[in-house]
Specification:
The chain has helices spanning about 15-20, 25-30, 45-50, 50-65, 95-100, 115-125, 150-155, 190, 195-205, and strands at about 10-15, 35-40, 70, 85-90, 105-110, 130, 160-165, 185. With about 200 residues, it is of the alpha/beta class. Strands 1-2-3-4-5-6-7-8 form an eight-stranded parallel β-barrel. The model has no long low-confidence stretch (mean pLDDT about 90).
Length: about 200
């Protein structure tokens, strides 16, 4: 069931966004429009504990749409919050180990602009890969923008579902270069969008 959900817009929410007054309404609207994945990208484990009630409500809402809750990095919280999966950077935990401790969960990994890292993900039976940055992003300012050669190479990767991330919003979500990606990840591109209906329409795969 989950593999069929690895499509379309992938909403990544940070701490400040999660606590904003607008978040609940934006999440509800996004789910109504077909959002399949929500990633909780919080900086500390303490944040999860301090805001456990609000996080659990968001998780329940996402599950009620049969969509996917993904936690970034904190694999120790997978069971406590009943997350459906985890997203990892290359330095978070060895891929063979995380597959062993969470073999019933969705696992995604960041490959940045590295085609070989994506091949490693196939070897470890990872569920999806993420590439970026597509454009410079205010959310992750240190992320390196891919050049045209790198973007073309990773867009042709077809062994796993793939997502593209980095500075994607209503002004560029319809770019031709994004057409080969099953998922398009956005954070501020969703939170600050003035036309979510159009954003989700353009992101449909």
């Amino acid at each position: 069931m989950f593999n069929k959900k690895l499509r379309g817009l992938y909403f990544i929410v940070g701490e400040n966004q999660f606590l904003s007054h607008a978040f609940d309404n934006i999440l509800s609207k996004s789910l109504d429009l077909g959002l399949n994945l929500l990633q909780y990208r919080f900086d500390s484990e303490n944040f999860f504990i301090e805001h456990e009630e609000k996080i659990l409500k968001a998780i329940d809402k996402v599950k009620s749409y049969e969509s996917i809750n993904i936690v970034n990095n904190f694999y120790t919280l997978l069971d406590r919050f009943s997350f459906d999966g985890i997203h990892l950077g290359q330095s978070d935990i060895p891929l063979d180990l995380v597959k062993y401790i969470s073999n019933d969960k969705i696992i995604g990994v960041s490959c940045y602009n590295n085609f070989n890292l994506a091949k490693d993900a196939v070897r470890y039976d990872i569920d999806y890969v993420s590439f970026g940055a597509y454009m410079q992003s205010l959310t992750k300012q240190n992320a390196k923008k891919m050049n045209k050669k790198e973007l073309k190479e990773v867009s042709n990767f077809s062994l796993l579902p793939k997502t593209i991330i980095g500075g994607i919003n209503l002004s560029n979500i319809d770019d031709y270069e994004l057409k080969n990606f099953e998922m398009i990840a956005a954070s501020k591109g969703i939170m600050e969008c003035n036309d979510l209906d159009k954003l989700f329409m353009l992101a449909k795969k």
